[in-house]
Amino acid sequence: MKISGHCYESSPLDKAVYLVLKRFRNQNNEDPTGVYFNKVLSILHQRLRSTFDLKLPHCWYRWGDEVVRRCLPHDVNWDHDYLRTTVSWDGLELHVEIEDHLELINEEIEKIIDTFPMSNIDRIVSEVYSYAPFDFQRSFRNIRGSLGFTNEIDICFENIHLDNIKKQKSIAESDFKSVDYNIPILHSSFRLWSESFDFLVNESKVDYETLININESFWFHFCYYLRLKQNENVPIDVIDHWKNLLPYDVKNRNNEIIHEVKKIIITGFEPSEEVSAIIKKRDDEINELISINDDLYDGEDTIDELKDRKYSYHSKIR
Fold it and tell me: What is the pLDDT of residue 78?
């Protein structure tokens, strides 16, 4: 196998990424989505594991096994729009000499792309989740699916069936409890999620928007820890960056869940003592911020809106 073009020193991973993107474009006359590209590389890494170490920098995160983008070749372009991300090779063509491991890589890439067409994205995602490290990841994916999530950004409400939602939630709750994560704030978010979820799905008219907001906030919270615990070949500076963000990220997601839970308390939700204590702690934090603000500005400027604030991703206010 030989791909003509400009030559520069590149790793087997660089060449594998290049071959995936070129193979897909030549075969489909389009570029793959970010979800599909991630899953092809994940399966490739998994299949080669026993014979050749591709050294793929990856972690388990919100949509399954994901490559760490900043660790891929700079020639890989991620084009984002509202609905999807597409991935392409925008740099020089690589010169790939015939070598045993590259022949093996190319053969596996061809098999994966032929076996898992992008038109059936759920199939390749399911294949990747089959070797996810925790059962909870698979069961929570099923919850998201029962709530109408596709493997992209869209939500299809036509696919929602309440009995299935309840069933998948029960399975996911059992799977979560089967592992001792030993993370107190994660346990708090789990209690908030679980109790509010049960209340919402048993209402005469289900508020799916609130249910999905709570569900996604808890999942994102969980995944901040997941990527730190389940990653491979990720540089230490990236790991350190994730660790530095962790206190802000998890606090914000926890506050988002509390915000949604407080809305349904008005409609009749009666939280347990544990969940009530979590909410009270958050209320005390908000009241303290308001008090500090009043002391600083003599009451002329207030931040009463903090009472209802949904924290943004990188908010530093606590």
Answer: 95
Residue 170 lies in a domain: no
Query: Could you tell me which residues come within 8 angstroms of residue 170 by beta carbon, excluding any fewer than 6 positions away?
Result: none
Instruction: Give pLDDT < 70 ranges for the chain.
Output: 1-9, 95-100, 149-159, 294-318
- In tens, the pLDDT along 276-310 reads 999 999 999 888 888 877 666 654 445 555 445 54
Residue 61 pairs with which residues in a beta bridge? 64
Domain-embedded: residue 108: yes
Question: 224 and 108 in one domain?
Answer: no
Domain residues for the domain of 268 are 180-308
71 contacts: CB under 8 Å, gap ≥ 6: 57, 233, 234, 235, 238
Q: What is the pLDDT of residue 238?
A: 97
Same domain flag for 111 and 201: no
Q: Are residues 184 and 123 in the same domain?
A: no
Residues 188 and 109 in one domain: no
Distance CA 63, CA 44 (A): 17
Domain annotation covers residue 145: no
Q: What is the pTM of this model?
A: 0.84
Counting the structural domains of the chain, the total is: 2
Residue identified by tokens 């299935």 is 164
In a domain, 171, yes or no: no
